[in-house]
User: What shape does this take?
Amino acid sequence: MRMPNFDMDALRTLVVAQQVGSLNRTADRIGRSQSAVSQQLRKLESQAGQPLFRREGRALKLTEAGDLVLSYARRILELNDEAAHALHGRTVEGSVRFGLSGDFAESWLPIALGQFKRTHPSVRVEIAVERNGLLLEKLDSGELDIALAMGHQSRSDAEHLVTLPMTWIGAPFTSVRRTANTPLDLALYRAPCLFRKAGTEALDKANISWRQAYTTANLQSLWAGVMGGLGITLRTAAGVPPTLSRLGEREGLPPLPGVDICLHSAGEHENATALSALKRLVIDNVMGHLGRPTPMVSIPVSRSIQDVNG
Assistant: This one.
């Protein structure tokens, strides 16, 4: 049996399409026309020798074979990009100051930043982990060049990446049952905090009494307080320790809004090439880890991709 050589550009188009969720945005991201994107996806399916997409109403989603190709595509492209960066990253020089919140600093992003450091040894990256509001204060004061922050999508420098649902979080087997005279114990950041505001407003709207039982300005301290049973809290699911549990309507808790994740930039930068390389790494990793978990492309069936499956 002759093994197919999958087209790298087509694999990259598949990954980007899964990340951004539409053919129009995929075309914008990779700098091609929508018809060219459709052609690449058809080519990939032809190389695979079996259907990679199925129709669901007016949308297309991946088949089991499509999911399998997608998982391998990520690995293939990661190795390809690592090799390219190792060869060409040495020509990129300068320094970039990057700020991020603790939600991202304690999970997958530091690994990606370490890889960037290895493949771009001439770029000096300075990392600052702060609360969201303080990150943007430092960006505005010139102490940071870019910042990955939550909840400030209205700023003119915000590049929206993804919206994540907030969730209630507690220790395993946490009981949130209350009597009329027993308020719900909360573990929260000090004000101002977008999660604090969203949580208390949701409880007030649901006529659930609460009290602030544990206050901190540090994410690790917050997790420790929740794990100790001092109160429940709310964040996104990004970076939540596996020792804690997500809570919700089953426990009588009200629904919560989503929070926008945006990348903010300070504008002109003397090391534009280094900054661009780091921004691309951050965007790709955020979309890869926090983007839509279930592919794929929501478009009218009558559009040019409609004949992907013949």
About this structure: Residues 293-310 have pLDDT under 50 and may be disordered. DSSP finds ten helices and eleven strands in the chain. The two ends are 24 Å apart (CA to CA).
